[in-house]
Amino acid sequence: MIKNRLILVSLLGISFAYGQMDSIVYNRLKSHVLFLASDSLKGRASGSEEERMANRYVVSQFLVNRRSKNQFWDFTVSKDSTLHCQMVGSFISNKSPFTVVIGAHIDHIGLGGALSKSPGKTEVHNGADDNAAGVAVLIELQRYFAKKKLPFNLLFVAYTAHEIGIFGSEYLSKHLDTKYGTLVGVLNWDMIGRLDEQNHNLYISCNQQADSLFEETSFIHPVYQDRKKVEILDTKHFLDRTIPCATFSTGMHSDYHKISDDALYIHYEGLYQILRYFEIVLEEQPFQNSLPIK
Length: 294
Fold this sequence. Notes:
Elements: H1 2-11, H2 23-36, H3 49-61, E1 68-76, E2 84-92, E3 98-105, H4 128-145, E4 153-159, H5 167-174, E5 182-189, E6 201-206, E7 221-224, H6 228-232, E8 245-249, H7 268-283
Parallel strand pairs: 3-4, 3-5, 5-8, 6-7
Antiparallel strand pairs: 1-2, 2-4, 6-8
């Protein structure tokens, strides 16, 4: 399926040379990262006013139409009854009984503290790769599919309280409204902003149900890793549903949880190609062979 589409993509001249990119989408992606990773948001700490500013930005960028509606969840973090969080998302209804959840966490570690790997620093930890870049792709993917109909619904979520214990995804997994229908897949990305220009590797950690669902294209090389990350990141609380769950990353780097994880170091051309990859993946419906989607 994807391999056949790859031939068409190649004929159209779309390649990793970036010459045929949609400049409007590319510039929006970059703008999302620059805003979300700006000093003014002070590292988007879980439950902070700056994180709420980031949430407001996200919903302002989602495309709202007849099928797409913004979603809001308010909850108190279970380990700290004084920490109240709001989580935002978008539900695209294709009038299907089935839904795929697509998520990326929006919070980071604020001014550092115990989670910082920049010892003694109390400066803004902007978290450009962790995970402003992921939220940027989330926004643009929502805009793309708000205008296209799939045989399943899509629930896009900007998870909060990730850095302090993946509480946002835990809350969602336990409070999925019946209006979303039956959950049939969960995709998550965390740190996808530094695609290597030579090997184009996109690392995938997934459960057994998602093994081999994601094929190679001319600009993305999927590399399957062990299941550790799918079991500890925002997919964790969905694994007991025996549905395909996968989390994606371009890999760990030396700026992780440091003040140096800045927008300057995001590989924006690679981020654009990752966005296009997920568009292809969802349009090719990787769930259709393992799930009752008609």
